Amino acid sequence: MTEAVHTRRVFSGIKPSGGLTLGNYLGAIKRFVDMQGQGFETIYCVVDMHAITVWQNPAELKHATRELTAAYLASGIDPEQSILFNQSQVAAHAELGWIFNCVARVGWMDRMTQFKEKAGKNAEKQSLGLYAYPALMAADILLYHATHVPVGDDQKQHVELTRDIAQKFNNDFGVDFFPITEPVIEGPAMRVMNLRDGTKKMSKSGDSDMERINMTDDADTIAKKFRKAKTDPEPLPDSLDGLKDRPEARNLVEIYAGLNNMTAESVIAEYTGAQWGQFKPALADLAVAKLSPISARMAELMNDPAEIDRLLGRGAERAREIAEPILAKTYDIVGFVRG
Ligand code: AQP
């Protein structure tokens, strides 16, 4: 069998499940912007169908969908160059998601650490959608035959599952149809940690607002949150090795590196021996310099929700043009009759 040649295409998405964090910015949005114009077709999604795997108030879901779109635009996603849309406007995601529910195995889903973390001791009370989420995520990606998926480190296992699903589908039906997608997890700050506990991921839905930086926080709030961030009594070390077993210290260094487009090594080189009283204000100033122009632009864009909806509708039309022929071909491969 000759190998199909796939266009270099990027797909990625974010859930509109609350305010966006610095983790979403450094692990996802900033890198989505960087991948525009790098020889890829770029498709970015507001994955609202993933958001409802846990309860969302309908009015808040609409607000979060528009706010996330505003964050994409304010950060530099160009809606002409990239396809930008919300998932529920392209029904093919749900349709391919069903087929992948029938390809993925229960044993594979049982190994997904994110479900275990999110469900905790209450797995029985979670929605079936939360459990099946990674099969829908595989559909999101493979519906566009995406070859590259920029994600934060927490999503690595789900992209690996996407590869397993593509492989099993291709093997089961004797085709070389779905690409084996590459996760792109490069650079510092690929797992931004909670400011109060450096062993936990920074999340939109974490319990306390003090544990995360929101993209819309004002300068005083950002400075206060970094000032109160947990650290240890040691100054910054003289090499990266010195951050081993110091998760909170490492996190702040990585955030600085991610925001300033530099490596963690060069941050250490610049701040060797610095005390937290010196480093934390420098980090806060940097975060404010990077985030405040974005949040100001987000606020402007949010003044015209009809324009945001129009852009999402137009993006969905363009997404359907790619997705529908791939879904139709999938239906033929599976053996569904189409009149
Ligand atoms: N802390 C993080 N560090 C680096 N990257 C992160 N991402 C999320 N948190 C971090 C990346 O953001 C993208 C979109 O994630 P998502 O919102 O769709 O899902 P999530 O990973 O479950 O994000 P949250 O903030 O934890 O949401 P909630 O609390 O609602 O479940 C992904 O590329 C992810 O890697």
What does this structure look like?
The protein has 339 residues and is mainly α. The chain has two domains: 9-190 and 305-334, Rossmann fold (3-Layer(aba) Sandwich), CATH 3.40.50.620; 209-300, Orthogonal Bundle (Tyrosyl-Transfer RNA Synthetase), CATH 1.10.240. Helix content is 53%, strand content 6%. It has helices at residues 22-35, 48-51, 58-75, 92-101, 106-110, 113-119, 128-142, 156-173, 219-227, 247-259, 264-271, 276-302, 305-334, and strands spanning 9-14, 41-46, 83-86, 148-150, 182-184. The strands form two sheets. The chain has a three-stranded parallel sheet with strand order 1-2-3. A two-stranded parallel ribbon has the order 4-5. Helix 7 (128-142) crosses helix 8, helix 10 (247-259) crosses helix 11 (264-271) and helix 10 (247-259) packs across helix 12. It starts with 8 loop residues before the first strand and ends in a 5-residue tail after the last helix. It binds adenosine-5'-tetraphosphate. The site of adenosine-5'-tetraphosphate has 22 residues, from helix 1. Residues 14-15, 17-18, 21, 23-24, 26-28, 151-152, 154-155, 190-192, 201-205 line the site of adenosine-5'-tetraphosphate.
Describe the secondary-structure layout.
Elements: E1 9-14, H1 22-35, E2 41-46, H2 48-51, H3 58-75, E3 83-86, H4 92-101, H5 106-110, H6 113-119, H7 128-142, E4 148-150, H8 156-173, E5 182-184, H9 219-227, H10 247-259, H11 264-271, H12 276-302, H13 305-334
Parallel strand pairs: 1-2, 2-3, 4-5
The chain binds adenosine-5'-tetraphosphate (AQP).
Adenosine-5'-tetraphosphate binds next to helix 1.
